[in-house]
Structures are given as C-alpha cells and as structure tokens.
Amino acid sequence: MALYDRDYNNSAVDTNYTTSTDNASVTFMKQTYQLLGASMIASAVGAYVTMPYVEIISSFKWFIFGFVMFMAFFGFSMTRKNNTLHLMALFVFTFALGVMIVPLLAFTIAKGNGAFIGNAFLMTSVLFGALSLFAINSKSDFSSWGKPLFITFVIIFIASLVNYFFLHSPIIHIVITAGILLLFSLFTIYDTQNIANGAYDSPVDAAVSLFLDFFNMFTSILQLLGIMGDD
Fold first, then answer.
1. How many CB atoms lie within 10 A of CB 191?
2. Of 18, 74, 153, 195, which is most buried, counting CB atoms within 10 Å of its CB?
3. Which of 33, 100, 43 is nearest to 70 (CA)?
4. Where in the chain are the domains?
C-alpha cells in the first residue's frame, strides 16, 4: 500500500523523521477506522432500538433531519476543543442517523424486501473498501476535488428538496439517488486520501467524513435495490 511505501532519503535524520511520520499516519488511520466501525455499531443500535417506533419517528423526521444537519455543520465545530465531548458527539450523531433511516428500513421490510438491507450493506462495504484502497494506493492527487464535490452536493441537495416538495417525479428521484451514490463514491476517494495525507487533526473528524460517505452510499444503494425490485 502506498501509505507504507514511501521514498526515504539516505540521511539518517531524515529517515528517522519520515519513519516517525509514517508511524503517526498509520496510527491515525487505525484510530479512524476503529471509530468508523464503532460508529456503524452506534448507528445500527439507533435503528434497531427505535424500529418499533417508526410512526413516531416519521412524525418527527424533519426534527431529526434538522438535528443531524446541525451536528454536521456546527455541532462538531463546537465540541472540537474537548476530546471527550467530540467523541460523544460522534456517537450521538451516528446514533441519530440510524434513527433517521428507520422509516426507509421499515418500508423496505414491509414490502417483503428485508434481504435488500443486508445486500445493500454488503455491496456498500465492497464498494467502499475498493474505493478506499484505490485512494490510498493511487499516485494521483485528489485534493482539488473538495470544492467541486461540495458544489455538486449543494445542487443535488436542492434538487432533492424540489422534487420531494413540488415535482414528486419517480424518474428524477432515481436520477438523484444515483447521483448521490456517485457523489459519495467520489467523496470516499477524496476523504480517504486526505486522511492518509494527514489533512485531519482529529480521528473523530476523519471518522465522521468516512461515515457520511458510507451512510449515503448505503441508503442510495438500498433505495435503488428497492426500486429495481419493486413490481
């Protein structure tokens, strides 16, 4: 893997410094993926324990969505100076995301397509892993992708709201869902390389980025499977 395959200088001082940097990068990556795994468990617990209350969750879906958006854009910035609060914010956030998708999971199960949930998770895991390995091993620099990806995210987000409230077009919904899958696949490459290159100060922030990539890919694949499997 490119993360471990660096071109060291012959100088003993430079070699020691680079080795130390590599060790720190490896440790950071391990911590990030450990937190990512723990976050997935927190999200799964959130979905599992609140599944019996799907009707209540559906009634408060916009409140939950607002909380998730607040945490994503402001909450983590507010807790960043306190490591304990920052870590707690990660699990509260991922738990809330698990709760947020309960209506989608319940709908999938009610349609007799419960197996799609496991299939979507497996497909997302394979795709996410492949994209992450590509990002780490690639010699290309993806650091310039940030702004175009964010602009695309805003456009897709606005389009999804317009379609949800006004157009109600199934075709547009499919296009938007496929666009979200593609967008967060590219975000996975971008975020993974940034983590490997030390662009994050905290493994919590890095785990949040990767979790959002995985989460959005998972929900997109699950919806597309449901659409294709719907008679």
1. 27
2. 195
3. 100
4. 12-229
